[in-house]
Amino acid sequence: MAGMAEGTYARAGVDQSRAGSAVSALVEVLAGIDTGRERRTALAAGHYAAVLRLDDTRGLALACDGVGTKVIVAEQLGRLETVGVDCVAMNVNDVICVGADPIAVLDYIAVEEPEPGALEQIALGLRRGAEEAGVEIPGGELAVLPELIRGHPSPHGFDLLGFCVGIVELEGMITGRRVEPGDALIGLPSSGIHSNGLTLARRALGDLEEEVGGRTVGELLLEPTTIYVQAIRELVASEIDVRGLAHITGEGFLNLLRLEASVGYRIDAPLPVPSVFELIAERGAVEPAELYEVFNMGCGFCCVVPVADAEAAVELLGARHPGTAVIGRTTTAAGVVELPRQRLRGSRQGFETA
Predict the structure, then answer these.
(1) Distance (Å, rounded) from C-alpha 89 to C-alpha 301?
(2) How does the average pLDDT of the chain come out, rounded?
(3) Which of 31, 202, 228, 310 is least enclosed by beta carbons within 10 angstroms?
(4) What are phi and psi of 55, to 5 degrees?
């Protein structure tokens, strides 16, 4: 990781380098599970979703994610009606990255105290997100954990997680394996910060009630994560050759390296950067290398298609997500992400100034 990424974000409480090592240790142990039966795993660990074979033709795509410290902003402002959207979005956006059709989400809500009004607000967001994604929420779990959960302020603490299930045709699974150098990289705009990097954002911006451009800081941070599922469903169902799909979350454009592709990525025409990121950079003295490792920087999702299909893909995706555009190309520099305008060059170890 770049030096700044080991500094500002780590000092805010999140050391991405140590987190990466911890995940590797966890995955290494779990990979050794012996069920005594034939393994159903159809996709190696490290992609956006796990895929298990149901039979010879179909697979079950699975993903699990939460909302992170965005819930703290919601607690502090007493506005819980949007984080449910984030919970659904973070999960369905991952599942569709393998070309699967998300069909259901289960929610897990841990609370300090069971407050009916608060749970109703959370549920309204979950319902909105489910309807936007076209998925069901057939069940979930509510855990009352006053010894574990502490609110901001107490006793209004909660945590919110989701688990998504999708169906995928094994032959149609999109892993990035067919991506070739010279393919077009298409970016879909984010709605803002989404649900990653909130710890750093909160430390940098401080006053949630401060008005910036006609909105408060709190409103900017609570803007729900964009759900890309309907647009990507349409893209996958079209005649366009979809070779790679990437949800741009924590680690920014380095998420592209999760695709099973022996290529690099050169982003020479990035989407416009929302003002919230410029504000974080200014107030928190955050350098570009760290910004692009932590945040989506205005691009919440990427698709890789052949150049010949790029125009049609932009038109299709832009109908639901205006501002969609070709942002770059794949290259022969395998494992490298380049941002020439920002003078950044990245790998799995992070970004550094080129």
Answers:
(1) 12
(2) 93
(3) 31
(4) -155, -160
Count Cα neighbours of 261 within 13 Å in the Cβ-side half-sphere: 30
CA neighbor of 341 nearest in space, from 252, 247, 265, 266: 266
Q: Which CATH number is associated with domain 184-353?
A: 3.90.650.10
Helix axes 229-237, 307-318, angle to 10 degrees: 140
CATH code: domain 47-172 is 3.30.1330.10
* Distance between CA atoms of residues 261 and 275, nearest Å: 32
pLDDT tens-digit map of 297-346: 999 999 999 999 999 999 999 999 999 999 999 999 999 999 999 999 99
Alpha carbon distance 323, 328 (integer Å): 15
What are the structure tokens assigned to 243, written together?
A: 């070779």
Q: Domain residues of the chain, as ranges?
A: 47-172, 184-353
Among all chains, which residue has been given the structure tokens 């350098």? 287
pLDDT digits (tens, 9 = 90+) for 171-219: 999 999 999 999 999 999 999 999 999 999 999 998 999 998 889 999 9
Instruction: For residues 174 and 111, give the distance between their C-alpha atoms in angstroms, rounded to a whole number.
Output: 37
Tokens for 29, please give them.
Answer: 């142990």
- Give the side-chain half-sphere CA count within 13 A for 198: 24
